[in-house]
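Per reviewer request, we include the raw input and output of the structure prediction for the construct analysed in the revised manuscript.
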Amino acid sequence: MTLIEAGRCHRVALAVDNVSQVEGWLRRVLGAGSLGIDRRASRDDAGAARINSEMDDLAGADSQILRLGGYPIILFSGGAVGGPVAAHLTRFGPSVHSLAWEVDDLWATQNLLVRRGIGLGAINVPGRHFFMHPRDTRGVLMEWTDGNFGENERRPDEGGGVVDIDSIAWVSAAVTDAEETAAFLGDLCGASPIGGNEQGPSDREVTIDVVIGDLTLRLVTPRSTASPYADVLAAGPRLCALALKVGDLDKSMASLEEAGAPVVRREGNLAATDPAATFGIPIEWTA
């Protein structure tokens, strides 16, 4: 029986070196829009209160929240030396930091996890969220909250960028054992394996896609040093890359090349751009 019933994806967090630069690029090139909630609103607005108080446990990190492909994306940078964001950037560089999902009863979820022996961290009572320790979740940093930003669907102010983003296709994690991690997440939060997404060669890496709530998490275990995930896993299992779905992959890749983000890998209906051109963030693309 599943321990936790995961709801909507609450947000995808990216750790970046400069929030303003990445925000500008996401808006200009990928057509990211505003979250749609006023961060200055009073605490009577549960969503805005959660945004404001979420920053309390991030040790002074700069932040901004956008919508991309309908999903909330939060950008983190800086913060106190040794703080969670600074430590992530020092160890891993810019990349996916964490994923958050909504639950109906946050504190019941907390108690269930404690009983299961899963370590918790950054428990923020005013912000109504907490993280599970990645050492207990196969390296995948996951957050739970009972706040919400509404449905994960495109808003009218999204689009108009160099490339039109349909949605987030998946978020990738390099893990030691993709099959075991998928089974663990299935038991923990109802992660359901799905097929049909473009993948790299099976002799290079084991790839398993699972759906948690309304977001697909891709679990990858390299089988050889030829895998682009081999160097990632060498630094420790973790979330790493963001995959975006577009309507026309060929056209989108050509547009990205013109915008200064060259394609460094293309395998059928799956491509990757140079992270150096996307502020260090590994981004994959599929149609």
